[in-house]
Write a structure and sequence with these properties.
By secondary structure, the protein is of the alpha/beta class. The protein contains eight helices and ten strands. The protein is globular, with a radius of gyration of 19 Å. The two termini are about 15 Å apart.
Length: about 325
C-alpha cells in the first residue's frame, strides 16, 4: 500500500506491519462462514473453561502431560494439527538421530528466543515446551514474567514503548536460577509483525546466564493471515483462525548459543542499536552483548527466510495510528 510506504524498511523495502490477507471466492467465503459459525462456540467455551479453571489447577491435579494434551485440543479445534518441525542444519528425516541437546528443554538450562507474529505462537510453545513466558521491553535488560493468557493477548496488544514499574521486572538470570528445569520463552522483538521481517531486539537476552542455551525459534503459518501485526484485531483473527479447514505451522529451531558476555546487571540500561529507543541510564551494550543479539537475530532471519529490518516500536506505534485513522 503506497500510503504506508514510510513504514517500509529502507534497506529491504519490507513492510512488516501490513496485515496479510488471502483472496477468497464467494463460494469459499460461504463455506468458510459456515465452518466459522460451527467452530466458534466450541472454541470460545473451551478457551474460557481452560483459562478460567484448568489453567489455575495445581500441577498434581493437572500434570504436564495432561496440560499439553488440553492445549493440543485447543489448537485442534481451529484445525491446527499439522506441524512441520525441523532443526536448522539437519536433513529432513534424520531428526530422531540428533542429540537431545539440540532441542530446548533437553540442553539443561534453556531459553527460547521466538519470532513474534501471532497469538498462536505462545499457544504452540506452551503445548510443546510448557515454558515460563516473559515480556521484553525496549531499553532494559529486565523482563516481566507473565501467564500463558497474557502472552497470547500480548500478540493483540499495542506496542509498549517503555517498561512498567521496576518492582514487576526481573532478569532471565534470576528466572533461570529459580526454575532451572523449566524452559524460558522470550519474544525479543517485543511486538508482532506479519512475519516478513525481524524487528530490532530488546536487550533482555543479554541478561541470560552463561550456562543457559538460547535457541532461536521461527514459527511461520500457511496461510499467513492468522498473523496479527495490527493490535486489537480480535474479530479478524478469530475469523481467519476458525473459518479455514486447517492451518500449517512451520517451526525451525536453530542450534543453541550461549551468552559469553554474561554481563552482570542490576537495572535498566540503554541498548546501542537494539531497539533504537535512546538512553535509559547512560550505559551502553558492550560489543560482546551486541554481538549476541546480532547472532540470534541473524539466526531468526535465516530460519524465517526473511531479513532484519530497522523499523522500531515507535515506527509500529506510528503505523498503527495511521492504520486506525484510515479505517475510520
Amino acid at each position: 500500500m503506497e500510503k504506508y510506504s514510510q513504514f517500509r524498511d529502507r534497506g529491504s523495502g519490507i513492510s512488516p506491519f501490513i496485515p496479510s490477507s488471502t483472496p477468497r471466492s464467494t463460494l469459499s467465503a460461504l463455506l468458510h462462514g459456515a465452518l466459522f459459525c460451527f467452530r466458534l462456540p466450541f472454541f470460545l467455551s473451551y478457551s474460557i473453561f481452560f483459562f478460567l479453571v484448568l489453567d489455575h489447577l495445581p500441577s498434581f491435579l493437572i500434570p504436564q502431560v495432561a496440560r499439553k494434551l488440553l492445549l493440543w485440543t485447543l489448537l485442534g479445534i481451529p484445525g491446527i494439527w499439522w506441524v512441520d518441525l525441523q532443526l536448522d542444519g539437519v536433513k529432513r528425516g534424520s531428526l530422531s538421530q540428533q542429540p537431545s541437546s539440540r532441542f530446548p528443554g533437553n540442553a539443561g538450562r534453556s531459553i527460547i528466543a521466538a519470532q513474534f507474529t501471532s497469538p498462536i505462537d505462545a499457544l504452540y510453545l506452551a503445548a510443546i515446551f510448557d515454558p515460563i513466558f516473559t515480556v521484553s521491553f525496549p531499553g532494559t535488560r529486565k523482563v516481566q514474567r507473565v501467564s500463558l493468557l497474557r502472552a497470547i493477548l500480548l500478540a493483540l496488544s499495542p506496542p509498549m514503548l517503555s517498561p512498567p514499574s521496576p518492582n514487576n521486572l526481573t532478569t532471565l538470570r534470576a528466572l533461570v536460577e529459580k526454575n532451572p528445569h523449566r524452559v524460558i520463552a522470550v519474544f525479543p522483538e517485543m511486538s508482532t509483525t506479519n512475519g516478513k521481517g525481524i524487528l530490532p531486539f530488546s536487550p533482555s537476552l543479554v541478561s541470560a546466564p552463561v550456562d543457559a542455551h538460547i535457541f532461536p525459534v521461527s514459527i511461520r503459518y500457511t496461510p499467513p493471515d492468522i498473523t496479527t501485526p495490527v493490535p486489537g484485531a480480535y474479530i479478524s483473527f478469530l475469523w481467519n483462525l476458525l473459518s479455514r479447514p486447517t492451518h500449517l505451522i512451520r517451526v525451525r529451531i536453530a542450534e543453541g548459543v550461549t551468552n559469553d558476555s554474561a554481563a552482570e546487571t542490576n537495572g535498566a540500561s540503554s541498548v546501542g542499536n537494539a531497539g533504537d529507543e535512546g538512553d535509559v541510564d547512560g550505559t551502553r551494550l558492550t560489543p560482546e552483548e551486541q554481538a549476541l543479539l546480532d547472532k540470534i537475530a541473524e539466526a531468526l532471519a535465516r530460519l524465517a527466510r526473511n531479513k532484519r529490518v530497522g523499523l522500531t516500536l515507535r515506527d509500529k506505534a506510528a503505523f498503527v495510528e495511521a492504520w486506525n485513522k484510515s479505517k475510520k
